[in-house]
Amino acid sequence: MRFSFSLTEPRTNNEAEYEALIVGLEIAIDVRIQNLRIFGDSQLVINQVLGVYKICKLELAHYHRRTLELLKQLPNVELARVPRGQNGKADCLAKLAKEMANTNEEKPIFIGVYNRRILEPALL
Question: Boundaries of each RNase H type-1 domain copy (predicted)?
């Protein structure tokens, strides 16, 4: 499942990474996912959630606490860091959300993305 969200207020990169993680966890809980693999390109956020890095900024502590609360509700979760260069699909979703952001409307904008060939390979 892939989702793209735009933020209604300016956030730092790290705050936006946490926001994305939290929204993803909330969706996983809502649809009752039992086994979840999370791939993130933020070394800071992934390592803070794993307990490798300390949380030095108060603003991130709130996000970290909420993330841990949500993780407790999922039975089997694995977090992995993916280098930004190898995270093309997530980057495309982030760019789409930024371009489609409309802070004047509260209703979501639904965009379907499908893979389809125009002609069958045999006709090419």
Answer: 8-97
CATH superfamily of 13-95: Ribonuclease H-like superfamily/Ribonuclease H (3.30.420.10)
pLDDT in tens, 82-106: 876 776 766 666 666 666 665 566 6
DSSP string, the chain: -------SS---HHHHHHHHHHHHHHHHHHTT-SEEEEEES-HHHHHHHHTSS---SHHHHHHHHHHHHHHTTSSEEEEEE--GGG-HHHHHHHHHHHHH--TT--SPPP-------SS-GGG-
